[in-house]
Amino acid sequence: MSPLEWGLQLVLLVLLGAAIPFALRLERALREIRRDRGAMEGSAQGLAEAARMAEAAMVRLRASAELAGRQVAERTAAAEPLRDDLRYLVERAEALADRLEGLVRAGRPLAAEAPRPAEPAVQSQAERDLLRALSLGAARGSL
């Protein structure tokens, strides 16, 4: 072998020696990438499972909302006749209250003119208390 060949082989040997640390770093990086890829695939599977569960939950929620909507519509339909009946009763009660108020107003002057019956002789304290309570109640009712 000639000295030129020896020199080229020596340069090649030095370059190969310098490449070994780079190869070791590259091997470590590839090992980490493979490990991270496994974790990422596991995460992707977990994410896919979570997405499937969310979709199933949305379907159940939509079904529950539709059921609740139907129930509300049924109850509303059942309540409408009751509402109409109550409205009718309120209107009749208002008309009767107006009529009664007119009769009370018409009767007040007659009640003021009518002679009061003589109060019977009171026998006991309980009777006196009862008469006092009745007269106070009548006075408050006319206000």
From TrEMBL:
Record InterPro entries: DUF6468
A Pfam family it matches: DUF6468
Top-level taxonomic group: Bacteria
Membrane spanning residue stretches: 6-26
Keywords: Membrane, Transmembrane, Transmembrane helix
Transmembrane helix as UniProt keyword: yes
Record domain DUF6468: where: 33-108
Protein name: DUF6468 domain-containing protein
